[in-house]
User: Which sequence fits this backbone?
């Protein structure tokens, strides 16, 4: 069975679609700004599904009116981390919500090896399963 | 199909924008003329587009120079709205900042701070008041220079995304531009705000009063014209700002005048009218003050 079809990870919104181009990303950002969300940019080289805390690229961007500001920052992030995963995260600060409202990947490494399934035999005949990224065998900053 | 200028005007709000500007701002002829020119260019650009005559969007970064109270800030506030209705900027908000908002306090603080402000202004207008403070030649380690460099870079590369307006007093802006030629040459429109003539100031006074639901009676208007003539001759005259302050003081005097007449039932007229006595009580009319 092939566990990594298309050799690309699928996390967050739009991840089963072809990658959004910059115009489409801008439209999504504008939509979020219209809803009053604050965008921020995050990157990582460890895209394990349980790794929800990615590194922040700069501060979250509050009080923006137009997508151009986010796009400017995104281009800067792509230049700095051309071979990392980059995602845009929209934070909804409405009282009672106060959490992430949108999140999608906007940058990926050229080659995504995916995850291996690790079976650990424990007491008796039980098996524990876990997944481990192939790329994370290598030290940080040499993964992709 | 070919369209005429009239067709484009009909389908946009250009005319109403210009009319409103004429109606609501007194004087400022050179400024209005420049806005008219810009509007004309944007209309013609739209017509050219029908024939696939692509041209780069004109650069609209501006500098406003003029004496205190000549309407620089007021026009800048309007400009965001005007450019939005002319379809030049996408969102049409105005972000007004001064040196404090752009320049940081320690090494490495300035760039993120300036960038954050720029990001907030994108899609609208960035108004930098007292822009000459950005550059402090007496301190070579001042971080203002760093802010200017980032500003320049964004003004050049993302002119579709925002319009930068620098404002300040004429003489100090002159020095500022002389020491930052790169900045000066990236600003296409240098607008000088002239001082108001006495009759324009009188008109501004009338309008300010009307906005606050007051009015002059006939004598008071004459007195106010006289007041202006004397006030202009005095030092520290700040055009419309002085008019506003004078009006605020007149309101005080009118209030105490009415307050003193405890028993009288006040009509609407009483409450809205400024009389000559409210103006002539000013220290400008005091004997010994040069006319």
Assistant:
């Amino acid at each position: 069975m092939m566990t990594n079809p298309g050799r690309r990870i699928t996390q967050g919104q739009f991840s089963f679609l072809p990658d959004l181009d910059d115009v489409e990303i801008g439209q999504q950002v504008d939509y979020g700004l219209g809803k009053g969300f604050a965008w921020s940019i995050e990157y990582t080289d460890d895209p394990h599904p349980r790794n929800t805390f990615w590194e922040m690229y700069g501060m979250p961007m509050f009080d923006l009116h137009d997508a151009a500001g986010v796009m400017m920052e995104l281009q800067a992030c792509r230049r700095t981390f051309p071979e990392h995963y980059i995602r845009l995260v929209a934070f909804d600060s409405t009282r009672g919500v106060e959490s992430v409202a949108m999140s999608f990947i906007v940058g990926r490494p050229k080659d995504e090896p995916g995850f291996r399934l690790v079976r650990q035999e424990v007491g008796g005949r039980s098996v524990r399963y876990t997944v481990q990224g192939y790329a994370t065998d290598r030290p940080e900053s040499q993964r992709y | 199909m070919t369209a005429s200028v009239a067709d484009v005007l009909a389908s946009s709000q250009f005319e109403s924008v210009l009319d409103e500007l004429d109606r609501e701002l007194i004087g400022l002829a050179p400024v209005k003329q420049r806005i008219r020119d810009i509007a004309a260019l944007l209309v013609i650009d739209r017509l050219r587009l029908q024939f696939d005559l692509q041209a780069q969007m004109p650069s609209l970064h501006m500098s406003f120079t003029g004496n205190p109270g000549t309407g620089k800030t007021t026009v800048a506030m309007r400009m965001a709205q005007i450019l939005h209705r002319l379809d030049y900027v996408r969102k049409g908000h105005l972000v007004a900042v001064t040196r404090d908002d752009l320049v940081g306090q320690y090494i490495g603080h300035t760039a993120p701070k300036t960038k954050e402000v720029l990001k907030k202004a994108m899609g609208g207008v960035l108004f930098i008041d007292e822009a000459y403070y950005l550059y402090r030649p007496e301190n070579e380690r001042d971080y203002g220079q760093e802010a200017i460099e980032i500003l320049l870079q964004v003004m050049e590369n993302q002119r579709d995304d925002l319009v930068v307006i620098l404002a300040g007093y004429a003489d100090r802006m002159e020095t500022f531009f002389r020491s930052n030629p790169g900045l000066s040459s990236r600003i296409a429109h240098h607008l000088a705000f002239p001082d108001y003539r006495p009759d324009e100031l009188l008109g501004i006074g009338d309008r300010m009063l009307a906005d606050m639901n007051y009015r002059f009676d006939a004598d008071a208007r004459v007195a106010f014209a006289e007041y202006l003539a004397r006030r202009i001759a005095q030092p520290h005259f700040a055009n419309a700002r002085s008019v506003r302050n004078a009006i605020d003081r007149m309101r005080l005097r009118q209030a105490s005048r009415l307050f003193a007449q405890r028993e009288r039932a006040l009509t609407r007229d009483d409450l809205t009218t400024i009389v000559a006595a409210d103006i002539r009580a000013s220290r400008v009319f005091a004997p010994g003050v040069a006319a």
